[in-house]
Amino acid sequence: MATRVLVPLLGEGVEEVTVTKWLKQEGDSIDELEALVEVNTDKVDTEIPAPSSGVILKIQVEEGTVAKVGEVLAVIGQAGESVEDASGPEPEEEKATETSDVRPETDSPQPAETKIKSDDQSQKSRDLGFISPVVAKIAAEHGVNLQDVPGTGLNGRITKKDVLNFVESGQPSAVSAQPAPRTSPIAPAVGDQLIKHSIIRKQIAEHMLMSKHTSPHVLTVMEVDMSKVVAHRKANREVFAKDGVKLTFTAYFMQAIVAGLKAYPNVNSSWTDDGLLIHSAINIGMATSLGKDGLIVPVIKGADALSLLGMARAVNDFANRARSKKLNPDDVKGGTFTLTNHGISGSLFAFPVINQPQCGILGVGAMQKRAVVVTDADSNDSIAIRSMVYLSFVFDHRILDGASADWFLMKVKETLENWS
Question: Count of alpha carbons within 13 Å of 100, Cβ hemisphere only?
Answer without folding.
Answer: 10
